[in-house]
Amino acid sequence: MSTVGSQPVLSVSDRVPSLESLIHPADLERCIRPFLCEAVDGVALFDRSGAVFGGATLESSPMRSWEQLPPEAEAVLRRGPDGEFGFSSHRFDVRSAYAATERVGLLIVSRRHGDAVAPRDENLVQGISIMLGQLLQAGFATWVTSEMHLATSESTFRALSQRNAELERAINHLREIDDLKSNFLATVSHELRTPLTSVIGFSEMLLEGLAGELNEEQSEYVRTILKRGEELLSLISQVLEMSRLEVGGERLQLVPHDIRDTVRSALDALKLAASEKHITVMNGIENPPFVLADPQKLQRVLVNLLGNAIKFSREGGQVTVRAEIAPIRRPFREETLFGEEADDALKVTIEDCGIGIPADKVGRIFEAFFQVDAGPTREHGGAGLGLSIVRSLVQAHGGEVWVESEVAVGTAIHFTLPLAVAPMPGS
Amino acid sequence: MVFIDIQHREVTLKLVYYGPALSGKTTNLQQLHRAMGRHAGSRLIELSTRDDRTLFFDLLPIRFQTRGGFSIKIKLFTVPGQVIHAATRRIVLQGADGVAFIADSQIRETRSNNESFADLRRNLAENGMSFDDVAIVIQFNKRDLAGIRSDHEVMQIAAKGREPVYKATAILGDGVMETFLGLADSAWVRLERRYQLREKVGVAREEFMDRIGAMLADLDREGADA
């Protein structure tokens, strides 16, 4: 703490509260004004820089014009501690104003210099000084509390900033790892496919008898090798496709497209699987508007979805595919204040009457490698990538895919594609 | 939550601009800031440094004195609209006295508006509040664009809800003041009813609105010149 004696009195230390933070000038005036009278015609509070902070004066008081103070008055002010000076018909009492132990300003009381100084006036000056001390003390308590709050907030802010920086670093690290994973998958899948083509190619050659006739048992074995090899190839292709979609390396060739063409060829590709399980596939699509899509990718979407519907349907069941104009986003039923969404997309629905998906797993079926039945005794094979690929492809088209399902009743998967010609607003 | 400091004769209100991403919340604040720039104590603190998008929040503090010597502080906040910043939105919304919901008038943004409005309701609930506890006004922004909800449709929407609805083109400054004044008024009326501000701090609604109106008068003149 600075010592008052040797240094300029009105020194500034950052631990000392400013008068502004202790008391409001309006409050100061309100409290002082009742003391003004014939004898005491002005009271002023100076801050530590020597500027008038506030106070109250009568019209006649010389305190209205401080700039006209004589030099000896300024000397007393600069000297600081309690004292008094006088000029013309007035005496000025100078008192230090304290908040706790800190000197925060100077109180100057202007008294009319009559024939004699009445003791009552002395008491009045004392009274004003004490009252001001009380006011400042109350302000000081508040100031200390708010300083403590500030300090706490600051340290919390610092801690949070630090945590934010840490989080940022962690996120960047995770991003790098994620990219690395995708690149790794792409490389590995490619390396796995190369030897597999040999396995498949040579087993085909064996079956065709290029290396001599095979007996019944040998043919059976080679057929198994071929079938398993093809399954493995399709799995690896899926993984490869997935990782390509994840790193954003897949380019779409968007053209105006009649979805009936792709639905027809997807159904052709799945004819065998459907007939093996005696499943009727109903194609309910009539005169759909053209969509903006990549026909090849759209076919992948349809084959995956229809394939799933057939795979999870009961023997002799039914699968339906239909299409209608709808908003491109899945229905949002929570809030409708801002009106209905415009129908700017074709919604394709593929419905089966299969085993359904339990409610707690519906939200997860589009995750990569997720299987509704992941138990060791599961009936249906697959890597759990089909729907994940579907979602990536539909999203790449700007559409959305979602599912509605009820256990033992069936599942409906909807996806949307943007229309090739945007509908007229309001139509 | 309004903060009334009797000792320092100060009332602090918190008003939040809410809405979907890129609906113009920050633009609203920038326009208000332009109008109040020359008044002491109003500095727009923008933390929207990355890609011109609000990442954390913007804060515009406004301060003025009433005739009775009370100082009124209004802190205007915006929230980041993007879905992923849900936590920030919830925190910024804490203790709000009023919310201006800035909706995008474009028909294709209907979904974002609905989602954001539902998000507002959820976040208020998580802060222990409901639509009944805060003053809410709705602004249909971007009236200058094509493919927007017609005036008739906006009227129909306004008739559906209880909240006052304003039309605006914030980028040109149109409707920004009306929205802000409407929001300040609704918030004050609500606080007056709840905390008897007229009795406690001696500031009436008319004076509060007069003072704000005086601060904004400058912009109106500028607008008339342009």
Oligomer: heterodimer
Q: Cα-atom Rg of chain A, whole angstroms? A: 44 Å
Largest sheet of chain B: 7 strands, mixed
Weakly predicted, low-confidence segments of chain A = 1-13
Instruction: Look at the helices and sheets of chain B and give the structural class.
Output: alpha/beta
Termini gap of chain B: 38 Å
| Spatial separation of the terminal alpha carbons of chain A | 79 Å
String of helices and strands of chain A:
HHEEHEEEHHEHHEEHEEHHEE
Describe the structure.
The complex is a heterodimer of chains A (427) and B (226). With 427 residues, chain A is an alpha+beta fold. Chain A is 44% helix and 19% strand. In chain A, the strands form 3 sheets. In chain A, strands 2-1-5-4-3 form a 5-stranded antiparallel beta sheet, sandwiched between helices. In chain A, strands 7-9-10-12-11 form a 5-stranded mixed beta sheet. In chain A, strand 11 and strand 12 form a beta hairpin. In chain A, helix 4 packs antiparallel against helix 5. The longest helix of chain A is centred in the middle third of the chain and has 89 residues. Chain A is rod-shaped, with a radius of gyration of 44 Å. Chain B is built from 7 helices and 7 strands, in the order E-E-H-E-E-H-E-H-E-H-E-H-H-H. In chain B, strands 1, 2, 3, 4, 5, 6 and 7 form a 7-stranded mixed beta sheet that branches. Chain B is an alpha/beta fold and 226 residues long. The C terminus of chain B is likely disordered.
